[in-house]
Design a protein that fits this description.
single chain; mainly alpha; about 55% helix
Amino acid sequence: MGKEITRSYVSFQPNGDQFIAFISLDAVSAEDRDLEVVLRDAADCYGDHIRAMRVLIEEMRENRMRRMPVFARRMWVLGDQVLRLIEHLSLLGLELDGVYDHLSRDLGVKRKWLEKAVIFRRHIPVVDAIPESLKWGKCEKGTRKKAERIMKGEPVN
């Protein structure tokens, strides 16, 4: 077996259209990896996920402005992006310090709204379990319970 990578906390600061990754000096002295490469990869990864999430969020905002529904599947995809970001950083041996604080700041959305997308995603493992016509408004309150109902094949009121 290979050596287990110890995860270090990472944070990001916006820098124009990109992000700069930071870790503590304690983590730097304890690591034997090329931290410049790891931090560059982490910043690229974070930036890629932020851009993908911004596209989803903008699409949802435009739908609301046009008085069109936001479908539950789109929120699932947003939650999935958050979980994929966490997973990708973990593969780099990093853990995002203050996930929701970072994402709220960089996406310009409320923390609670984002948390609900992640809860929804965590309780529904595949997007195909969600009826295509299901609107997010039906799932927004009591998100976990609604997700559990969806997984049981029960109607969501």
